[in-house]
UniProtKB/TrEMBL annotation:
Domain of life, per lineage: Eukaryota
PANTHER family for the chain: P-LOOP CONTAINING NUCLEOSIDE TRIPHOSPHATE HYDROLASE PROTEIN (PTHR36978:SF4), P-LOOP CONTAINING NUCLEOTIDE TRIPHOSPHATE HYDROLASE (PTHR36978)
Cited Gene3D superfamilies: Aldolase class I, P-loop containing nucleotide triphosphate hydrolases
Source organism: Alexandrium catenella
Alphabetical list of CDD domains matching this protein: KDPG_aldolase
Lineage per the UniProt record: Eukaryota, Sar, Alveolata, Dinophyceae, Gonyaulacales
SUPFAM superfamilies assigned to the protein according to its UniProt record, in alphabetical order: Aldolase (SSF51569)
Signal sequence, renumbered to the chain: none
Name of the protein this chain belongs to: Uncharacterized protein
Any one Gene Ontology molecular-function term assigned to this protein's record: lyase activity
InterPro entries with a match to the protein in the record: Aldlse_KDPG_KHG, Aldolase_TIM, P-loop_NTPase, Sulfotransfer_4
Residue ranges crossing the lipid bilayer per the database entry: 12-29, 314-342
Keywords from the UniProt entry: Membrane, Transmembrane, Transmembrane helix
Amino acid sequence: MGGKRWDAAARALLALVQSGIYFTALYYSKPSQRRWCTHDWQKYDCLGEDGQRAMRSNGTDLQVVLPSYGQTGTTSVITALRELGYRAYHADDYCIYSRSLMWDRFDNALWSRGVSRCRMEAIALEPTTDAVRMAVRMSPKAKFILTWRKFSSWFKSTTGARVKEVRWGSIHEVLSKGNRFIPWIETWDDAFGTIRRVRQRGEPFFLTRDPIVAYIYRTACNGYAWHTNDHKSRGTFKSGAHEESYLGHQNEIRMLVPKERLLEFDVTKHSWEDLDRFLGRDSGRAGTPFPKPRTKETRTNDIVLESNWRNTRWALVVFMILHTLNILLIALAVRLLVWLLWLLAWALQLVDWPLEGAEELFEDAMDESPLVVVLEGVDPQTAVPLGRALLDAGARALAVPLHLPDAAESLRALAEALPPGSLALGGCAPRTADDVTAVYEVRGHFVLGPFPDRSVLRRTRSLGLAGLPVVCTPSEAAAAWRTGAVGLVVPAELASPAVMLACRDCLPQGTRVLAWGRADPGAVEDYWAAGARGFIASLGRPGESATDHTAAAPVAALVRACRAPARLWAAAAAQA
């Protein structure tokens, strides 16, 4: 369990590094748009069959123009015109579908094509209000609606809108970057044409039949962020929120537009009747409130987002998913890189590859026969016959003291002579990490303590072996588990069953605790009741090797004594 905790910490750290790489790249990446946004719009946007016919006509059907600064009621009037059936475009629309109107420099031809390609019937010029002269000249039949309000009111609204733009803009920019490194949206559109169909229709966002797809395209290809547009030096931004600039722009419009084509409109005072009278039509809305989509309560200055939240929120979810996919790909790339580096280090013999299944085989052996036999004083000549005798007696786990001169040779002899998988093979009392490596090299399965320090236990864990250190107190037990131990050994001669129970209680459920002491079948049940789930018995004495004849009988008796409470405990657990 302790090893699992370390593994979880390592995975969490790796995930943090991966996320850090991704968000650092996002932070330092420069705002940019792909060719899919900056060039393909000329082939697709608004250019369905109707758009192509309109482009060939070399004329415009523009009927209404709003040349005013923003925050004067342009959105309200555009909304009203849409309710009247006009194909009305605000900057939120034409900055996407007809980007040439946003260019810093454009001529009469660009203006005509930009308006006609989308079959615009009404347009609010903001932020390109400097195009008012061209609009008057190129659209002689169009009527102009000058929306205005008192400067103090406009100033307050404008400054508040800028705060909202900065607040939401920072969030919107982060979300839009989900498509920056990998062209997810373009790839999807190339395969299915979902966005291309919306682009070819080029409908204003409030009239579109696919608001989610349209907002995805708007977020990915926002015309305001295009490198060829410097909208901050035009329109409302250029005025600097100064009263002289604000009033001067209104007077310029009054001078440019003939009076019979101009309506000065205050959305707080005027109504549907005034608009109907100017447009020469009867809307049937007399006496009803005039549209006011922007209010003080709106959280952002993005009216498309605010008015279509039920749909646009799903578009934002799509970009969140794109960020998730990017992080997953980075995680995959980082893991692949780590794996390749590990493989290279292993090929250069700089690291050892962890054994697979060593811990599982040790657990299976302990479940079958919960007894580890330590072969004291064994040597390579006696190891094999002794191991076979103990295997026949029912033992399924053998350990060789690693301090013996020929410990490595004894382990190798046992590993080569005994049937693979018939028992768990390990060592005990390692002094250095090299002792642990000796168990690893013969493809052993476990190492028993005491460990000289935690680095040896961590080495055991890194090689894929089951590490079970010796502990005598609950605090030692908790520390060993945190270091990566898969189980613990409590010396029965130094710790009573009560101490073992205290050690067991401070460990996660399922942690295996072994009692180490002299072979005493009579004490098995006491320690089992205290939480032991296995036993360790030393066979022979240091410097004195036991024979296969003298070992078989006592080991067989101890195996039977250990298996009896194990069966009862397993039956009780199954019944529970």
